[in-house]
């Protein structure tokens, strides 16, 4: 088991690619946040925007990794309406509440639209 865990959510694959590249570089474990909401299509996009604007978090599946066992947790999220995506809002709460080793670090990565 690595001391570094990358936790991410990705709706369309960009954050997944960044997470995979970082995991290779850091020899890190990877945990994908599984969202229980259907975010496909136009209605799904609308749900993303509404959740973000309202500051709602999503219902997600339990994580497979024990977050308290990792010294560093890197969290990757798409940016939705200028904010952290709803599934990552839920995942970050799990990371925050997990007991962490002394001097543990939690780092956020925000995937934005390319300009
Ligand atoms: C509903 C929605 C809202 C978005 N809002 C923003 C935004 O405010 N700023 C931005 O830079 N990108 C925004 N984006 C673009 C995504 O953050 C960007 O495409 C991201 O790389 C997607 O990551 P993913 O492929 O891992 O889901 C938005 C995308 C969606 C679907």
Automatic annotation (TrEMBL):
Gene3D superfamilies cross-referenced by the UniProt entry: 3.40.50.360
Needed co-factor(s): FMN
InterPro entries documented for this protein: Flavodoxin_CS, Flavoprotein-like_sf
Domain of life: Bacteria
Provenance organism: Caballeronia terrestris
Alphabetized GO MF terms: electron transfer activity; FMN binding
Protein name: Flavodoxin
């Amino acid at each position: 088991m690595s001391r570094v865990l990358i936790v991410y959510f990705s709706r369309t694959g960009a954050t997944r690619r960044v997470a995979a590249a970082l995991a290779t570089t850091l020899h890190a474990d990877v945990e994908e946040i599984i969202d229980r909401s259907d975010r496909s299509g136009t209605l799904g996009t609308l749900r993303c925007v509404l959740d973000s604007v309202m500051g709602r978090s999503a219902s997600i599946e339990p994580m497979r990794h024990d977050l308290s066992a990792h010294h560093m947790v890197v969290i990757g999220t798409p940016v939705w309406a200028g904010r952290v995506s709803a599934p990552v809002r839920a995942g970050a709460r799990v990371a925050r509440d997990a007991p962490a080793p002394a001097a543990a670090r939690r780092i956020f990565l925000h995937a934005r639209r390319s300009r």
